[in-house]
Amino acid sequence: MAHVRMGEVWAPTMMEDEADVVLSMEPLEGLRVAAQFLRPGGWALINSRPWMPVDVAVGRVEYPAAESIIDGLGKLGASVISLDATELALEAGNARAANTVMLGGLFALGVLDLSEENLFGAMEERWTERLVEVNRTAYGLGYRTVRHLLGRQHE
């Protein structure tokens, strides 16, 4: 878990019920973090692809159904967007770009005061042309998927 705070910041980590967004690379972990930190009415942006903990892998416990995790987030007052960022990253050319898929989804929510130009500029300064290409594609897939899902919520 990592905390990213922007604006007037008085402490390095979130206080309970203070986060505007919980972005999670794993559904159950997203619920766990949201239960503590997400403010009512905040966003839960969740990669729907579970990573099975050891207890699940050895059969000691069952992983909850995706619907129950989404329901739990809703009961916390979250606006929930769930997408398979891992599959979209594979489509972009590299499963490790799932985090960039999620970053594109985060930009699509309109909650960041950052420009795409600065984001892509930072990528270009640090990465090879191939990595930039894969991550631009991953970002676009995440952005478009979340915009599409947001549109479906208002139908």
Give the class from helix and strand content and strand pairing: alpha/beta
Mean residue pLDDT: 92
Strand content is 5-15%
Order the strands across the largest sheet as they lie in space: 1-2-3
Helix-strand pattern: EHEHHEHHHH
Taking all Cα atoms into account, the compactness measure Rg is 16 Å
Query: CA-to-CA gap between the ends?
Result: 34 Å
Total strand segments: 3
Biggest sheet, in brief? 3 strands, parallel
What is the global morphology?
globular
Uncertain residue segments: none
SS element count, helices: 7
Helix content bin: 40-55%
Q: How many domains make up the coordinates? A: 2
What does this structure look like?
It is a single chain. The protein has 155 residues and is of the alpha/beta class. It has helices at 27-37, 54-57, 66-75, 85-92, 98-109, 116-126, 129-153; strands at residues 19-24, 38-47, 79-83. A three-stranded parallel β-sheet has the order 1-2-3, sandwiched between helices. It starts with 18 loop residues before the first strand and ends with a helix. The relative contact order is 0.14.
Topology:
Layout: E1 19-24, H1 27-37, E2 38-47, H2 54-57, H3 66-75, E3 79-83, H4 85-92, H5 98-109, H6 116-126, H7 129-153
Parallel strand pairs: 1-2, 2-3
Features:
alpha/beta, 3 strands, globular, 2 domains, about 160 residues, 7 helices
